[in-house]
Amino acid sequence: MELARPEDRGLALGAWGATQATAAGLAIACSGFLHDAGQELAEKGDLGEALQSSVTGYSIVYALEIALLFATLVTIGPLVRFTRARRPKTFTLSPSTLNSRGMP
Fold first, then answer.
1. What is the pTM of this model?
2. How far apart are CA 2 and CA 17, in angstroms?
3. CB-based contact 12:4 (threshold 8 Å)
């Protein structure tokens, strides 16, 4: 929002909201299609006897969501790598360091 000119901030905020709403709508539509397709295959027995259940469609969608979450974490991992802050070297006073600097 800070990149937009002051008079365009409302437009930028509206565009962001429209983008989020579109993405949410597409996600719901895709998951609904995937659920229905998976459920139909399960009911026909195309996925095997073990997956002939009323929850198979939901399980397929949930498994895909978990896989996409892990893919996101793998992708983000290198971007959030942190570096340790360099600490300044510590200086300790001892009789040998005092003598080497010409101090009594």
1. 0.62
2. 16
3. yes
